[in-house]
Amino acid sequence: MFFQRVKTQGLGHNAYVLGCGNGLAVVVDPRRDVAEYLQLARDNDLSIAYCIETHRQEDFEFGSASLAELTGAKILAGKHPLFGRVDVQVGDGEEFTVGTTRFVALATPGHTPESMSYAVYPEDAGDQCWGVFTGDALFVGDTGRTDLSDPEKTAENAGLLYDSVHQKLAPLGDQAILLPAHGAGSACGGNISERDESTLGIERATNPVFTKSRAEFMAQKAGEHLPRPPYFSHMEVVNLEAGRPVPASPDDRVLLPKAFQERARGGIVIDTRSPDAFAGAHIPGSYNVWLKGLSTFGGWLADEQTPVFLVVEQPAKAPLAIAQLARIGIDRVEGVLVNGVEAWREAGLPIEALGTTSASEAARWNEEGDLSILDVRDDMEWKEKHIPDAHHTFVGHLEADLPAIPKDRRIVAHCSVGHRSGLAVSILRRNGYTNVFNMLGGITAWDKLGLPLNRNQVE
Amino acid sequence: MFFQRVKTQGLGHNAYVLGCGNGLAVVVDPRRDVAEYLQLARDNDLSIAYCIETHRQEDFEFGSASLAELTGAKILAGKHPLFGRVDVQVGDGEEFTVGTTRFVALATPGHTPESMSYAVYPEDAGDQCWGVFTGDALFVGDTGRTDLSDPEKTAENAGLLYDSVHQKLAPLGDQAILLPAHGAGSACGGNISERDESTLGIERATNPVFTKSRAEFMAQKAGEHLPRPPYFSHMEVVNLEAGRPVPASPDDRVLLPKAFQERARGGIVIDTRSPDAFAGAHIPGSYNVWLKGLSTFGGWLADEQTPVFLVVEQPAKAPLAIAQLARIGIDRVEGVLVNGVEAWREAGLPIEALGTTSASEAARWNEEGDLSILDVRDDMEWKEKHIPDAHHTFVGHLEADLPAIPKDRRIVAHCSVGHRSGLAVSILRRNGYTNVFNMLGGITAWDKLGLPLNRNQVE
Amino acid sequence: MFFQRVKTQGLGHNAYVLGCGNGLAVVVDPRRDVAEYLQLARDNDLSIAYCIETHRQEDFEFGSASLAELTGAKILAGKHPLFGRVDVQVGDGEEFTVGTTRFVALATPGHTPESMSYAVYPEDAGDQCWGVFTGDALFVGDTGRTDLSDPEKTAENAGLLYDSVHQKLAPLGDQAILLPAHGAGSACGGNISERDESTLGIERATNPVFTKSRAEFMAQKAGEHLPRPPYFSHMEVVNLEAGRPVPASPDDRVLLPKAFQERARGGIVIDTRSPDAFAGAHIPGSYNVWLKGLSTFGGWLADEQTPVFLVVEQPAKAPLAIAQLARIGIDRVEGVLVNGVEAWREAGLPIEALGTTSASEAARWNEEGDLSILDVRDDMEWKEKHIPDAHHTFVGHLEADLPAIPKDRRIVAHCSVGHRSGLAVSILRRNGYTNVFNMLGGITAWDKLGLPLNRNQVE
Amino acid sequence: MFFQRVKTQGLGHNAYVLGCGNGLAVVVDPRRDVAEYLQLARDNDLSIAYCIETHRQEDFEFGSASLAELTGAKILAGKHPLFGRVDVQVGDGEEFTVGTTRFVALATPGHTPESMSYAVYPEDAGDQCWGVFTGDALFVGDTGRTDLSDPEKTAENAGLLYDSVHQKLAPLGDQAILLPAHGAGSACGGNISERDESTLGIERATNPVFTKSRAEFMAQKAGEHLPRPPYFSHMEVVNLEAGRPVPASPDDRVLLPKAFQERARGGIVIDTRSPDAFAGAHIPGSYNVWLKGLSTFGGWLADEQTPVFLVVEQPAKAPLAIAQLARIGIDRVEGVLVNGVEAWREAGLPIEALGTTSASEAARWNEEGDLSILDVRDDMEWKEKHIPDAHHTFVGHLEADLPAIPKDRRIVAHCSVGHRSGLAVSILRRNGYTNVFNMLGGITAWDKLGLPLNRNQVE
Asked: Where is the Rhodanese domain (chains A, B, C, D) (predicted)?
């Protein structure tokens, strides 16, 4: 029985290709660029019969429509109207069979109203549930956020989710393998484990949705304040149509430095190199989003209309950078400067540098008093622990919050390890702040060195 | 938490690379060519701290010694003397910690006396066992063969294995993920599932070691007669030293047809193309072992002293063919004819062809009476079902059993689908049989077409 | 100075990516699937400024329009109206500069009326011509065929070509590197060298266009009878628009055996495995075209309207098979049976086999008289040498010439080594011939064994 | 006829694989890691018959011995005793044939006393020379340095070289393709063209060895002062034995930050990231050598006894970094920190940063007077043009020349574009200089911006 989790880095997304017997396969929650699923099918002699959707994803664009067109597969989902384009609708408790494998559809609302889970019973695994595709209902160590459909009803939805998990999933048994739509790094959960493999039994012993009471759980979820990137709204629209194909011709034109400089005036420049390289030298006015963070943080900087110009570390990375933006619906990449920072410099075009610092040096400066510390992590991370007297603004909101940041002091920005603060210092720099430093190693290093922290118990 | 099963096709072998926290990893039961493990470690920024062995494998050569030398890892195994080269010995019930992950060693004899399992407790998975490396004690849907250490004691060892599973593994709980050393296609179990993912709970409901009584289980195992390839003895010796490195210079010299013809006189020719291509045209006297079967069936044809000359379908496949033999300790590949069947023909060198047939045609011939059907599957497959009046000899024993095969009749060889019968007809051909056919599709097609079969209930 | 010949196997086609200084590059005669050129540009930090066309290619579909759209490059060609979509037109003798590299356009008609060559003068190579893109005017060891525009004027066009080469190319000097649009295996020349590297000086000493007189050359070309695959007409139309993009969604759906069987009724099945494998076992009614021959011989079997169903040896080869057809404008691949001959057999679906034979065996049969030898090479090859009493029909014309082939005798088909005769025997087989053999090794082996041949001096 | 130049970046080295007919190939001047040659041979169905050496290379370690052992090839070279291990010795003017290809050996001393060239006459290229392997006698646009055997005799050897080129190579004709052992970036020539493709005719019109008189040429060569990296001496020894195999087990152990820090105390740390990333943050005391420069500049920092610890940008680059050192005989890489600068920071381990600046900013500083400019290019580059009042020391000699560099001023280091100055600032930093800046864009940007330069006519 072929089975493969296909992870999409940067989105913390899991799709699954599952062989179902008789040469048929299903793909669960495919992302927009589907070539990898097609190749897995080909390599394992599988014909894709269904694209199964657990819910209308908000954080990435679906590839269901593409897969359906390319392979003749049918799109299968629940009956809720938030599933738009669906070929086969299944209701709560309904069974269906693909090849020799039986599935039971389970309505598991809470993360969103339409959320479905699918319990899987392969022919040779007996009467018990072998595994369950849970979408964003149940993650390893966490549950889906419940604020998306209506922030006012975060707690109420959490109660709904609690019931879904306890009434629909828990009865499947400890032995069932957990197959969620997201892993660590997703914008859809605040505290998903770095471990991908789990079972319902392991979750029953460790996951807050099981270890807390319903009321405690509702309170916890109500207290979560996860950022909601602006591109989510666009995804909600396009996913009603099961996603759009990746543009036939991703415009990966290599631009020479002068042409890049000229055209980029009509858009934004995103430099995907590491925060160190960006600090060392970069194009004035560019944003810094490290390559793997592009799907998550690109959506805070650009929308589907923004002309984007990319700086990449190496040519081989350009297609990945373009794909990462396409996965969240941003298709207007109008130029790439590959290897080109070098050509840029040799052309005598202007460069800028930024400061970097370490936790120990920053602590020394802090004692000397000449410093404003800016923490750009999200609310939950801030609540868990933070440097005393630091100023907190989530990096996605920084551009809006600039009036609160003083221009006349040395600013040391940090996040957990240094990537998001790389974006933060690039935002400060392009807004006229000159005395800015990225604290590499972040609060992780600060903590390891035993430097002072305020720790607030997270509920 | 990084976790990756690394499958070795042809051996049905699973090794595992497990990230244990703090940047440390363990590799469980590594095969001889270790580059893939090293790359996984590098790609995930992991330092390999331990090579963990579940038992002295018989069916492939260990890479533990190589990994230890290359990375500084320590070899960890049980205290039984059948583990030879070990840096860290752990006894039954003993705990050890790597990074932030706790392991409990469990003596689980039965397959072999020294067999160990290792229960794993990652930091964030609570007090319950997350998964268990079971070696050849417990497979998905099956258990390790119990005839290897002493065929006389097959039943007795099966009882021992039954107790190991029930007393040591079952108590770990339904939620524990099963991580065995072999999957389908292994020579170490007769009926391992094609499905790789399972949990103890799923096994408890479906695996014969759980669904049968102790006595029934002993009887079943006693009735199993799995072939024991001759190279196993060599593996037992070299694995006492935790395996040898792959030769620095795998001798993959490309030979021109005439040189190949000349030198091959001092050894054997193995043609790794598909049975169809072999049937279409091949070098007289060559054996046919399809590429993925080389680790399993190469060990019936050659030992560590045999000069081997390979015919491969495409140049890119030569390294894999050489690796497959190296994995079972056969290093004397002294020439490769790549793309070269073509060059061979163009040189006017002699070729031979063989007949192929389908199940329906063979059935027609059979009715007409002019036919001897030769079934070369193993004993268990034969017992389960076979064509009436067929002659049965396992392909590994065919060369020895030739006196029993008539030379004057048309012989149709078959196995389950056509690969092993490809080897069988090549053996017949090189021994002077001329009227031989490979029944492509095998008994699988025969059965699907509803042709007559004797079915013997397997216990 | 970056310079790379990009060969397209099967078409014997050369495109070129040439760095021209200042980060600019040109691509000469790009094929339809342009990803490889884009990657070379990216990897070498080059911006593609021009797609240069030497003539309206007939044997493959251009990628100029795609490249122009993807990169902003301009299409540069001559002024003749047979160049349709052109952004920059250059006349005979006109100069243009890209980056720091100077080009001189040269009208070199003969192969076709519009044919242009482009002499290249890089900055650091002095005043002499460094190299010249000759399109189909001058190949290594050969010249472009002159029958395409009007078979009646083959000799006349040859005279024109002779003048182009002597008056326009020869004056560039012995030192100039020859950069033609085709190498060995092309349908555009009959006798192109297997060697890709040459200079005008080497050609001057060896190429018939130089070693023969004008009259001799005209006579030679008039005597050439090269096959003209039917898809050429389609290429002439689409290349007026500089080619079409590869379909966004190459339909590479994996079909299960029964679905494949059913749907394939509405189209043709092309089996891309080796002739040996095809001979060993194949789907009844399928054509056999070895993978690398698909661009050349697929165009004799299908046109842009034909639904094509592919059998491939391994999944990884499916995209290449689909690309090879797309390169000649055949986009309706509606199903792929990957790995699937095996699944086909296991499903009990019918298979057929074919005979193979060697030159020595065929010669023996021939002496015994019970044989009709069918030579399916092209006219030039036949003229050069052939087996006495063989029947000659070019494989592309075989289906039309079947009435001339007796059904009641044993037929041994051959070509030079066995690929085209593989196609031939598949054609015979699907037309009801049962006693057919592919003579593997072909006339090459026959010749090496010293068997009798009629040798006719080729002019 | 298969022909492939195999470039080794960083060494500016060309090896060649040439198919010679009858399935035989030669490899000319192979580097130490030979896998790429073996693969080319396999992929093109070629048996390597000879490793041909043009001279005892000084700048990289030979792979001839390895290839000979792996493939059975024979080592062919000249008769001079500076060729040590040779199987087949050929004298000046001697012919030999491989397959259907004729070679003529030509003694072409000057670069070194033993230097040989080999003129090639493939079967189908007529009586003229098709191409010539010139080793370090004649490059594209340059000739081999003549100071290596005895710096006192630089001019005298130049005369010898002049005669070799004029008397032995020129007569081969303008049409002959030039196949030298090095291209741009080599330490064996000062001014080799970036263009790889040339012919003797093109050289005759442009190369100083042709455009100058013998006396002028001798004077020019006498005036060249190319750096001679210390590892050259080691190469001279090992290449007498035709090179050693790459160690079976390149020790690429992944070290965790603390282990790396500890062990690295016994050796040197080389950070192979870009100069920007190094400037942004690096491990105190580390050298910065960009990845592609490792073969050239690693040899100035380490010898075959030095334990080396590598920092690489991405895991996939580690094997290349290790190979680059192995190619110049440095095998003691004892640890790699992959991805690990991040882990390093998160562990709170100390980091350092460096300044970067642009040409325009540096010019501004310079006007303000508070600056010492350090030019670390080689002598020839310095002579050609330099910034007024800059201090010049070749980067390879910087560590020895530190006493001449003031510690109390701001130092801006530059080279041509910023790589070698990256190494220079890292050297300064680890020697206690704190106020150091790397001028990114180098003198190239300075020149493009029209800033003042002293230009000294190079002879």
From this structure: 263-353, 367-455
